[in-house]
Design goal:
The complex is a heterodimer of chains A (191) and B (294). Chain A has 191 residues and is mainly alpha-helical. Chain A contains nine helices and no strands. Chain B contains six helices and twelve strands. The chains are: A mainly alpha (191), B alpha+beta (294). At the A-B interface, helix 3, helix 4, helix 6, helix 7 and helix 9 of A face helix 1, helix 3, helix 4, helix 6 and strand 5 of B.
Chain lengths: 191, 294
């Protein structure tokens, strides 16, 4: 099966093939959904450092479930429900069961497949807006973001690496963030 | 005027959100943010953008790691030989002990050049039998703490906590030490003077309450100080009572029923260049036992 064939197959077909043991089929599903699942998880738990673990847990659970013979009718909805449950497990484990003495503790409402999917779509739109913003950046700005966000460098380290004054790097970083932020939230306050 | 000040802030807000402000600038920005919700919202929005950028730009490596995990999942597991099964508990214990040399930097900066050992020690007598052992990860030992309800029922005790004055009971004593050791080759700078320094205590268990601290006391671990840890050097952060939060907003936690609780300690502290790092204890099992009033 080549890449073009992968692209043509629907999620349902890929899920069915993955359930029959086709590892490439599941890999293709991870490529299709990894970004959206990660963005969904980030929105849910609001902790960037947890996203990779929870996204990984989501796909592993989906993989095990498919291997056990469960093929969902709606793969996306099913996958985001798994992601929702993984986040819920973490939130229940980590969130202190502490509450105002005057109030009865609230139980987290369970959500159905469609609401998880709606939330995921909302985050997918933000990711798409970010993608458009990134595509419009200069090479210099993109390189700066790669060094900062992919390699975890500080402005000081980047300035040394690129042989530029730190003020230039900081100024470019500030302008780039502002540009991308406006792209994500076009109606925001332009202050 | 606020508008002028906002204009002055323009470039600095983004850098502040990215922890790239120089200390004098940072103070100026923080003073401004205290009185300007618009700029504070902008900082939050920039931080959310940065999280999305991390997620997007680190995706290739993350996807690769996921595929490796899936590959490992696919591989059939070899059946352990009988002697291996007998040794398994010992091997697990060894792994846990080795796992103590772990740096948990959190997602907000970290200090990749400085791996840390994080230990949680207790001054309670029951734990002195195993000094220096990382209680959070090293075995079945459980920390035990008294439930001090001053002779009241749980309901009466909880009612006491709603009193909005200084007569509320003191937060439970825990007397823990979060011990951090620099395992790296470079000095590690920690600055608890930074106003963003925060001690987060997460408690999960049968029943509890969180209210403002009765006397406004702040966690001892948040005493303002600057520390430079040379390679191999240790530093203790004391946690005497269940008080969580920042110096400006301390909150008291109370367990109100006996039983088993899980306690996690996160210390968020500034390091070189004003970057924030998180020191995480991992989960600690705590047995809370009712005691008779004196």
């Amino acid at each position: 099966m080549d890449k073009a064939d992968d692209d043509r197959r629907t999620d349902g077909q890929l899920a069915a093939q993955a359930a029959r043991g086709d590892s490439q089929a599941f890999q293709e599903l991870t490529v299709r959904y990894y970004r959206r699942v990660s963005a969904f998880v980030l929105k849910r738990v609001q902790r960037a450092d947890l996203v990779e673990d929870l996204a990984q847990e989501t796909f592993l659970e989906a993989f095990r479930s498919l291997r056990a013979g469960r093929v969902p009718d709606n793969f996306a909805g099913w996958l985001f429900t798994i992601a929702h449950n993984c986040c819920g497990k973490w939130l229940r484990r980590r969130k202190p069961r502490l509450f105002d003495p005057d109030q009865t503790p609230e139980l987290t409402a369970t959500e159905d497949e469609s609401s998880a999917l709606e939330e995921a779509e909302e985050q997918a739109k933000r990711m798409a807006a970010l993608e458009t913003g990134l595509a419009g950046l200069t090479d210099e700005a993109r390189q700066l973001l790669e060094l900062k966000h992919r390699q975890g460098r500080t402005c000081e380290q980047i300035a040394v690496q690129l042989g530029k004054p730190i003020g230039t790097i900081k100024s470019l970083l500030s302008r780039t963030y502002k540009l991308l932020r406006d792209r994500l939230d076009p109606g925001g306050d332009p202050t | 005027m606020t508008s002028n000040t906002c204009a002055d802030m323009a470039e600095r807000l983004e850098l502040y959100a990215a922890d790239e402000c120089d200390p004098p600038d940072r103070e100026v920005v923080e003073r401004h943010l205290d009185g300007c919700p618009t700029c504070a919202a902008q900082v939050e929005e920039t931080r959310r953008l940065m999280q999305l950028l991390d997620l997007r730009l680190q995706e290739p490596e993350r996807l690769l790691r996921l595929h490796e995990r899936l590959e490992a999942e696919r591989r059939p597991r070899k059946r352990a030989m009988p002697w291996m099964r007998r040794l398994a508990p010992l091997a697990a214990l060894l792994l846990i002990s080795l796992g103590m040399g772990l740096f948990l930097g959190g997602g907000d900066g970290g200090s990749p050049g400085n791996p840390l050992t994080v230990k949680v020690l207790s001054e309670s007598r029951s734990l002195e039998m195993v000094p220096g052992v990382d209680m959070a990860r090293s075995g079945p030992e459980k920390m035990s703490f008294p439930l001090e309800r001053e002779g009241k029922t749980a309901k009466e005790f909880r009612a006491e906590l709603t009193v909005k004055d200084a007569h509320r009971p003191s937060p439970p004593r825990v007397r823990l030490v979060l011990q951090v050791r620099n395992e790296g080759t470079k000095p590690l700078f920690l600055d608890t003077k930074d106003p963003r320094t925060e001690l987060r205590l997460h408690v999960v268990g049968p029943a509890g309450s969180m209210v403002a601290t009765p006397t406004g006391e702040i966690p001892a671990a948040l005493e303002p100080r600057t520390i430079t840890l040379a390679p191999g050097q240790k530093e203790d952060f004391r946690i005497d009572r269940l008080v969580t939060g920042t110096r400006d907003h301390p909150q008291a936690l109370y367990w109100t029923e006996p039983g088993e609780y899980t306690l996690t300690i996160n210390l968020r502290v500034a390091t070189t260049g004003g970057r924030m790092m998180t020191i995480d204890s991992g989960p600690i099992r705590a047995q809370v036992q009712a005691v008779k009033p004196q």
